[in-house]
Automatic annotation (TrEMBL), chain A:
Stated name of the protein: ABC transporter permease
A matching Pfam family: ABC2_membrane_4
Superkingdom per UniProt: Bacteria
Species of origin: Streptomyces amritsarensis
Keyword Heme: no
Bilayer-spanning residue ranges: 21-44, 64-82, 103-130, 150-168, 175-196, 232-253
TrEMBL record, chain B:
Assigned keywords, A-Z: ATP-binding, Nucleotide-binding, Transport
Protein name: Multidrug ABC transporter ATP-binding protein
ABC transporter domain: residues covered: 2-227
GO molecular function, one term: ATP binding
Amino acid sequence: MAFSAVLTSEWTKIRTVASTSWTLATALLVTVAMGAGLCAVVNATFDTMPESQQIAFDPTQMSFSGMLFGQVAVLIFGAMVVGSEYSTGMIRSSLAAVPARGALLLGKLTVATALALVVGLATGFLSFFLGQALLGEHSTTLGEENVLRAVIGVGLYMALLAVFAMGVSMMLRNTAAAISILISFVLILPIVLSLVDATRKIAFYLPNQAGSAIMQTVSSPAVTSDAPYGPWGGLGIMVLWVAAAVLGGYLVLSRRDA
Amino acid sequence: MIELDGLTKRFGAKTAVDNLSFQVKPGLVTGFLGPNGAGKSTTMRMMLDLDNPTSGAVRIYGKRYRELREPLKHVGALLDAKAMHGGRSAYNNLLCLAQSNGIPQRRVAEVLDLVGLAPVARKKSKGFSLGMGQRLGIASALLGDPQILMFDEPVNGLDPEGILWIRNLMKGLAAEGRTIFVSSHLMSEMALTADHLIVIGQGRLLADTSMADFIHQNSRSFVRMRSPQLEQLKDVLHEAGIAPVGVPDGGALEIDGVGAEQLGELAARHRIVLHELSPQRASLEEAFMRMTADSVEYHAHAPGAPGAAIDNPARPADVPAWGAGFDAADSTRKGGR
């Protein structure tokens, strides 16, 4: 069986269900709109901010602040791409057609990740340009140091988050359970861990916390002293999480009864 | 050609499929019969490598299903009608399956037309009735024009016209030399379609026989006689050395091994009035129930005495709760997915 055939098939699957377009459109719109709104607010109130915050101000990262909610839509996208196969029973037809578990999983991941990457890049650039336009004199440009890396980083981050969600969903084989766990893990757990000094360091190693480093451009004292990794190191930690989720998903898919 | 070799599947303590070995041969419709929960669906899922056997193996033309290149071109299966994404149109559900196996796009429209779903091809499949879903599943099985076709309870949810259609479809496909393997819990349905019969109960092989042999061995024929002069008739029969095998109810006699002609002439010679003289044939359904009731009795010691039913197969009411014991276990398993 040609792998290109599996890719074509997975592309048909992903483009012919409604959840794909609404989750990805939500991810893009929420991120861009929220980022733009916050940039406008910051621009208006910049002078009232404490001096330490003014020094550490990262206009690039500021324009991506909508990611906090936009990423939830990315998680739902990933969870639904995999979970809907189980909830509908389609997985049995899929595996009868492509019994090689590795090929099926890789095909699905490739197509969904590519799509998330494209939408993520569009989100990054749109958020950046709109945000900078609204930041006025506090804005930055693509030509500045690290800025382009951060904008492209939005795409990488969203793509990795989608793969992470797919891996977790493949392990749980249930969309609702996967979404609950992913949201707790990505949105709630970092906040809880950050409340206490003893656990704050652990929070740095959560996938989204580590991965977010790629979207920052300013190495403020706050950033460098706390996080024990740079932007690429952080992304690397996220990649490890994603790899573990995919491996777990593959093991469940190949060992358990469909 | 499909070969099962010692196929076994356990779910915890429950053995769903127990050391099953048989072959499914080309050019025939092979019926796979068993009461609900006998392990038919589990067996079929293992044939497609969806479930992993605890032990044993399935070979399709000597290969495991997973080793087939473009499997839809070799094996088509209808496992359950709901194995499709409801949010996708019938056409797109089939299209993504076709593409994965290098099946040309025009074949999708062809099979939809064949099963009568062409008018609703662009409709989301979640709005389909059970019968339409079943037709969509059959369309997906036919997609790769495979030599082997497996249908799990294909007549479920179909209207009479649909049932007739699927029967003729299966016969036609077998006549083309294909291997047809079809499961059912209805003997009457199998009697109309199957050439060969494999019966399982509680996961065990109970019979592997041609349909003709099964009918020959299992359908007891007898003559029923009814007369207002019952005692005289009994005496006459006794004198002639004929012992009635059964006296089911209100003055009827059942006689085995003597033709209706002889019995009628015998009665006439002795001037006995007959109200009924009718050759009877115990149905295959009853034979099947006897067979599976035995397996229930043997394994589960079901309350009541199925032995009585064996003495008189003509009265299915005597057969206690065949398969009743595993309905619950079966629904747990199915609900769990």
